[in-house]
Amino acid sequence: MASHRRPKQPSRTRVTVLTATAAAAVALSSQAAHADPKPKKEDVKSEVDKLYEQAEQATEKYNGAKEDQEKLQKEVDALQDKVARGQGELNDLRKGLGAVASGQYRSGSIDPSVQLFLSGDPDTYLDKAATLDQLSGKQAEQLKTIADKQRRLAQERAEAAGKIKDLSDTRKALGDKKDEIKGKLAKAQELLNTLTAKEKEELRKEEEKKQGQSQGQDRSSRGNERPDLGNDVPASQRGAAALAAAASKIGSPYVWGATGPSSFDCSGLTSWAYQQAGQGLPRTSQAQANAGTRIGSQSALKPGDLVLFYGDLHHIGLYAGNGQVLHAPKPGASVRYESINNMPFQFGVRV
């Protein structure tokens, strides 16, 4: 007779393992199907450029906060010195009045009004103006001087306290902007690190093409040679001197917050250049926009004029003539000549 035994069923353990393996395979396949593809070079470049622009915007705000911090620190120091001197003068006045009171006390004739002053608040005393009639003219004058000095001293202390708070707030804003800039630059670097060596080289060549540099130049000299700037006459002798100073720094790296002499940000370069020409400029690009006469048309620009870009004026350079601007472009780049049309021109400023 034929056997009708039931086929042997796989063990529960074996079924569990097979099921788990299949589930894992399905999960991995699903993850692979939905995994984000490697970002394209063009997308990386677009995002990096955006991050660099945001970092530069934050840099100009950082520069403004730093300038405010330095100004506030000077004001706080001056107020604290003034308070210290005032306190010393007040102490001397009190000593003088105290000597008079001591003499009266020893003779048994101390004036009750002087006694009231020495034991309490001069402001409270002076509110009772009628008691001044009980004093000699000299003592009354001394008391008024002391009370006035105390009032001024209290005002100066309050002003110093307000400035110190402003200074503390500015320092915090400075730290926040510093962290923001570092975060933007770090994110940009992370994106660049996703590119292959070949893609990075392609981006470098595209950047050179944007600058209008010759692909056949030796790499060490790219951007260091003055382009043909035509026959433009400088805006002024001082403007020419500032442009020459900036040109001497071609190839120096862009570093946020830097004002030279070995590295610069955009407004750091322009302020340094004009300083070499004997002209002081404010620290930020937005403030430098008000440092002279505005020139609305590109055709009216002269070498040495300041040139402002972007709607919020967060970038600035020096007009070099023939449609060229000399500037510190952005993080990761160096001081160089570039077409003025590579950025959204707003207006020029003749210092």
Task: Describe what this molecule looks like in 3D.
This protein has 351 residues and is α+β, with helices and mostly antiparallel strands. Helix content is 57%, strand content 8%. The chain is built from 9 helices and 6 strands. It has helices spanning 12-34, 41-106, 112-119, 122-127, 137-193, 197-211, 237-247, 266-276, 285-288, and strands spanning 293-295, 306-309, 315-321, 324-327, 336-339, 345-350. The protein has a 6-stranded antiparallel sheet with strand order 1-6-2-3-4-5. β4 and β5 form a beta hairpin. α2 runs antiparallel to α5 (137-193). The protein is elongated and about 90 Å long. The relative contact order is 0.11. The model is unreliable at 103-107, 128-132 and 213-223 (pLDDT under 50).
